[in-house]
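Homework help board

Subject: predicted structure for assignment chain

Our instructor gave us this sequence and asked us to write out the predicted structure in token form, then describe one feature. I got the tokens but I'm not sure how to describe them. Can anyone check?
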Amino acid sequence: MDGRPVPGPRGRGTGSDPENRFTRLSVEPDYDGGEAPPERVSTRFYVDGSRTALARNDSPDVGFAVSLNPYRGCEHGCVYCYARPTHEYLGFSAGLDFETRIMVKEDAPELLRRELASPAWEPQTIAISGVTDAYQPIERRLAITRRCLAVLAEFGNPVAVITKNALVRRDADLLGDLARQGAAAVSLSITSLDPELQRRMEPRTSPPAKRLEAIAALVAAGIPVSVMVAPVVPGLTDHEIPAILAAAARAGARSAGFVPLRLPGAVAGLFEGWLAEHYPDRRQKVLARIRELRGGRLNDPRFGSRMRGEGIFAEQIAALFHTAAHRHGLDGGFPPLSTAAFRRPTLPGAQLQLFG
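My token output:
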């Protein structure tokens, strides 16, 4: 190919399948010979055979130690997604494969129940969507996330959810039950209020207006909600921070956070290609600003820096965010979620075991 950006199939974040860093074999279609790229690419779903529902995290940059991800890969197709390189561990690409080859943990609720029932489990907050979004489109049909929430409500174990999909409002009943015990909180991620930019950058996520409606619905159900301006794309979306926080505050959000864009591994090339296709006039400016944030690179993986960035532009973004958050009363944060309501329900047959 001659280096020109290849338009992605309709409804997809990227049309590229970059080489998997762990394999030597890759297939790259050549569309310069007259063959047109496919207009649509269907999604395939595979059974994930993991024997645990929970993943442990030891990063000091995130506020949780245990997460639950019912799906690997994400049909939302956000072109900037930092989780894309995780698909390479499965033998897929970080590009189109990530959003069209989805691993499904069908038995996640049963695995979760077994882990919470174990005497080895110490009650603590479980983050849902620590890697890929638990409310991506297939969840509407499979309801795996909802069934996992039902298990958490049964045990009274605290949960923190982060998502870009308004489908989360479907589960306001379960989340509300936990919230009344101080054991649930939800974060809605809003990158932009511009529906055209959102559609191009996050093609299968909920539109900004729907996310704001979801915030209001969850708040009405008694659930504490925060807004995450994540990622902030310098030179493209950073100017929207005050407007996003104002809209979230009007919808009832109680706190806010932000994370500047980082582009690990293959994501850097995918994002550069996306900029060349959709915003060629801003490409150089955006990439230069990201490098300013990341020590001259497009990604800085160091703990302490990767979630905030460094340098003058990082300071400007932080100042803009904190000023707007204070103006709209979103700088207070949430109290820690409570484990006080945790209990292990009596399982069928457990009493009979007392008699040998």
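Reply (TA_rk): Your tokens look well-formed. For the description, you could write something like this. The mean pLDDT is 90. That's the kind of observation they're looking for.
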